[in-house]
Design a protein that fits this description.
elongated; 6% strand; Arc Repressor Mutant, subunit A; 948 residues; 15 strands; five-stranded parallel sheet; Rossmann fold
Length: 948
């Protein structure tokens, strides 16, 4: 029985074709033949037959189709089509599959080429080409499993054609070649080998002008399409035609042509313009070689040109390297060598000793009978490396060393002089490898992603569904591999909209599994990087794999070294080493100094590893360590910003918490860490330490003094209150209600503020906490004052001041006294207000609390305005406004502008007043602060009344 894939699917028994009927049965046979003698999992067969959404009856239907296929193949006993524990296996004997026979024929032709046995080259190439019946599996254009093999077979066919014609030319058989080569050159207008062969054939037939015209057409096409000049083979043929030299068939065969081992460039390569330019600039720059010596030539000196392209798995390192290599290959006429070092993958990494043998064999241009066999190469790796440097010394060769594990694997393969060049790709940054260009690839930007998606699935589909396109781009997170998988899925599903696939990818829990097609899979690519360190012999790398898993518990968030040290329960210095190792192999990103995060998709992979490989107890303990660390760090930050009284944790952190140099430093830390703090608050509510929820929330007070208007503090406080109530925690309820009252008051939600403050006051009464009661009375004073109840505001403030003095505590004094000054200001007792605010200002300055300094200065300026002290009033207000702007407190800026506008209006400076009110209104609109917007508009209305 014979199976044919190189054309329409065909099964023959002897000379008779055997019918295999039914489109799905034929698809089933094709998929099994694409992996002969290997078990194919049932889910892969179902995907080929029904796509991503097989019907409920798919398994039963698959069994029926397999039975039909056995019958049609005459395999009633199941000897050829077998069921195994890993899937279904189609046994194909030697010589039964045309694709295999074709591959062996091409291999024999290659071996004959290396021996320069041109008769064997012609015979083996012709035999292989005779199996070609047209486009492979032409009836299955959308079968994903066929795409890569089809491309490989087509490339192998072109290579075999090139070799067969080269053999004909070497053997002097020119007749009949010109029509064939003319057709091939027309079909492949940028394929240089066919054009060079056509020039030689035309020249041997005496058609010199036609040969020169072929060169002119090729050169124009290469320059216009690719921006490059013809390569060395075409140049040699051109020079031969120009000199009118004709080889005679009886001449000894020339040395083998320079190696051209580069993989095919990706036709839809998109983006990376700056990186591509940097690589080509390095590789095309003329090396600075020493002056020519007077005596015999010596090996070239200077430094080799080395470029390192690093990045996470699936980011497009190899694509960029190969694209650059093709663009500059004409600068390296002595060959282009390619080697996959397998540094990250299922197979073991290749040994430099073995790689040196392969590279030296590729560079050996002597006739086959003069070549030293591989066993005669030096046994020592260093000696082989020296031989390679000697072989490259006088040559211009480009080496592409793909997928390197580390510098030790690469260093023996490097040239010693400056004529040759090397592109190294790796998931490791290879910091210890000297490089003239070091490129670290980031995810594609949105425009590059959209352009690539358009090229993969068609621009019209992207234009028709822009929302679906953006959702797909978000799901792929700028990873070229993910985009290519997405494009392949869409190409094979022409009826799908982009939104259809986006719906599958929107569910982050199944996104990694959905981002796979055929042999391409994002999670498998990530796994090669992770497994390399998890199963490493190096204890530090194995520890880094554990860090990767535990960090996956916080995927989507950026963590600093100290927080990571608490999560990992490791010293800070060791944690920094682990994080840097993960960054070096691109398993984490470090966009800021000593801060680390995951790429979106890689974080999802890390989270899966944590759930599958870390025990639940370890995960819970890590989360608790991080929660306690953030609670203690936030206490330190809150104390630095506003040393107000609040409950503290009597625990030690798993890693040292930050030491803040000043309030601004602490405020900056809060802003930076807020996303993680909010997530810690959310998770703590359902953990063994629910008290961390409200403890973290109340210590955000210092941050909230500047940024209350964002609404983020409110959300944290409500979570804390809910958790405290659920667990019957009176202390937590009291403090959360106290902070909620403050938050509502800052936002001028006066009724809600009073309700929360009175509830808190009752709880603190139950807890017998007089200092807290004094503070709550001060808060009530400020809140009722905002309602216009000035008399009650003064009564609350005086009661607060009296109670505070009775407690004899210093803590909280400034807050209570500030409330008393505010009440006097509302009641237009400007002298009393000035006295209190002046004292509060001295205290705030002593503490270094810029937010409270700015608030007090504004109130002091308002008091001075009431006292008619214009110059002093504006000095205080100007300083307050400068501080607010420095802090970035938008609500504070608007509030100070309103107070300053009133002062300008009071002293008759109406244009300045208008400017202040207008600026305050603009800020209030932009940041949705309705109370301040209304005050700004009231100020503008007042100016209109004054003018009229």
């Amino acid at each position: 029985m014979h199976f044919s894939l190189l054309g329409p699917l065909l099964v023959r028994v002897g000379d008779q074709e055997r019918a295999v009927g039914g489109a799905k049965v034929r698809t089933l046979l094709a998929v099994l033949l694409l992996e002969p003698d290997r078990p194919v999992p049932p889910d892969r067969l179902r995907a080929a037959l029904w796509g991503d959404h097989p019907p409920a009856s798919a398994s039963a239907s698959l069994h029926n189709m397999l039975a039909r296929l056995r019958t049609q193949l005459g395999d009633e006993h199941g000897e050829r089509l077998r069921s195994t524990p890993l899937g279904y296996l189609l046994k194909v004997a030697e010589g039964e599959l045309d694709a295999r026979v074709f591959g062996l024929g091409v291999q024999r032709a290659r071996e004959a080429l290396l021996r320069e046995d041109w008769e064997a080259v012609r015979r083996e190439s012709a035999a292989a080409l005779a199996l070609w019946r047209g486009e492979p599996l032409t009836e299955f254009p959308d079968l994903l499993q066929a795409q890569a093999p089809r491309r490989q077979w087509q490339e192998a066919r072109l290579q075999a054609l090139e070799w067969r014609i080269e053999a004909e030319l070497r053997l002097g058989r020119v007749q009949g070649l010109v029509p064939e080569l003319t057709a091939l050159a027309g079909e492949h207008p940028l394929h240089e080998a066919f054009h060079a062969q056509l020039m030689i054939a035309l020249h041997r037939l005496g058609q010199r002008s036609e040969a020169l015209a072929v060169h002119q057409r090729l050169r124009r096409a290469l320059v216009e399409e690719l921006g490059i000049e013809p390569g060395p083979a075409v140049r040699r043929a051109h020079e031969q035609v120009l000199r009118d030299e004709r080889d005679s068939p009886g001449e000894p065969a020339r040395p083998a042509r320079p190696q051209a081992q580069l993989p095919a460039a990706i036709p839809d390569f998109t983006g990376r313009r700056a990186h591509l330019q940097a690589l080509t600039d390095l590789l095309t720059a003329e090396p600075a070689e020493p002056a020519e010596p007077a005596g015999p030539p010596e090996p070239a000196g200077g430094l080799p040109r080395i470029a390192v392209v690093a990045g996470m798995g699936g980011i497009g390192k190899t694509a960029l390297a190969v694209q650059a290599a093709h663009a500059v290959r004409h600068h390296y006429p002595d060959g282009q060598l390619y080697a996959d070092l397998r540094g990250f993958g299922a197979a073991p990494a290749r040994d430099p000793h073995e790689l040196l043998a392969a590279l030296l064999a590729a560079l050996d241009e002597r006739p086959a009978d003069h070549r030293a066999p591989a066993r005669l190469l030096p046994e020592d790796t260093d000696d082989r490396a020296a031989l390679l440097r000697t072989a490259l010394a006088e040559r211009r060769v480009l080496l592409v060393l793909d997928n390197a594990r580390d510098a030790a694997q690469v260093e023996p393969l490097l040239p010693g002089g400056c004529r040759s060049a090397v592109i190294v790709t790796s998931r490791n940054t290879l910091p210890d490898l000297p490089a003239g260009a070091r490129i670290s690839l980031a995810p594609l930007d949105v425009e590059e992603q959209r352009a690539l998606l358009s090229r993969l699935c068609g621009p019209e589909r992207v234009r028709q569904d822009p929302d679906g396109a953006m959702r797909l781009l978000a799901a792929c997170a700028g990873l070229p591999l993910a985009l290519r998988i997405t494009g392949a899925r869409l190409s094979s599903r022409p009826a799908w909209t982009l939104g259809t696939l986006a719906e599958r990818l929107d569910d982050s829990r199944g996104r990694l599994r959905a981002l796979s097609v055929g042999r391409l899979a994002v999670d498998a690519t990530f796994a090669t990087s992770y497994v390399a360190i998890r199963d490493s012999e190096d204890p530090l790398e194995r520890e880094a794999a554990r860090a990767f898993r535990l960090l996956g518990l916080w995927a989507g968030h950026t963590l600093g070294v100290e927080a990571s040290a608490a999560l990992l329960d490791r010293p800070r210095e060791q944690t920094a080493d682990l994080l840097e190792l993960l960054a070096d192999v691109h398993l984490v990103q470090t966009m800021e100094q000593w801060r680390y995060r995951f790429h979106d998709l890689l974080g999802e992979f890390a989270a899966e590893r944590a759930l599958q490989e870390e025990p639940a107890e370890a995960r819970e303990a890590a989360a608790l360590r991080l929660g306690v660390w953030y609670a203690l760090a936030l206490e330190a930050a809150g104390t630095a910003i506003d040393p107000a009284r609040a409950p503290r944790l009597a625990e030690s952190p798993a890693a040292p918490v930050p030491v803040f140099t000043d309030p601004q430093d602490a405020l900056d830390w809060c802003r930076r860490e807020l996303p993680v703090i909010k997530e810690v608050i959310r998770r703590a509510a359902g953990s063994s330490r629910p008290d961390l929820t409200w403890r973290l929330a109340i210590w955000l007070l210092g941050y909230a003094h500047t940024f209350w208007w964002t609404g983020e503090w409110d959300a944290c406080l409500y979570l804390g209150l809910e958790s405290a109530r659920e667990h019957g925690d009176l202390l937590g309820q009291a403090w959360t209600l106290r902070r909620l009252g403050t938050s509502h008051g800052m936002a001028f939600r006066n009724d809600e503020a009073i309700e929360a403050l009175e509830a808190a006051l009752a709880l603190f009464e139950e807890l017998d906490d007089d200092p807290s009661k004094a503070s709550l009375l001060a808060y009530l004073s400020m809140t009722v004052g905002q309602q216009g109840r000035y008399g009650q505001a003064l009564a609350y403030a005086q009661a607060a001041w009296k109670l505070h003095q009775e407690t004899g505590e210093e803590e909280g004094r400034l807050g209570v006294r500030s409330a008393l000054g505010g009440a006097h200001l509302l009641n237009e007792d400007f002298e009393a207000a000035h006295t209190h605010f002046h004292a509060v200002l001295d205290g705030c300055r002593a503490l270094g609390n810029l937010t409270h300094v700015a608030i007090t200065l504004a109130n002091l300026g308002d008091s001075l305005r009431g006292l008619g002290r214009q110059e002093d009033a504006f000095a205080a207000l100007d300083e307050s406004l400068a501080l607010r702007r420095r802090l970035g407190a938008m609500s504070g800026i608007a509030d100070c502008l309103i107070i300053t506008g009133r002062a300008h209006a009071h002293f008759g400076r109406l244009p300045q007043a208008r400017t202040c009110f207008e600026q305050a209104a603009e800020i209030s609109r932009d940041h949705d602060i309705p109370a301040l917007l209304q005050q700004s508009l009231d100020g503008l209305e007042l100016l209109r009344d004054v003018r009229h």
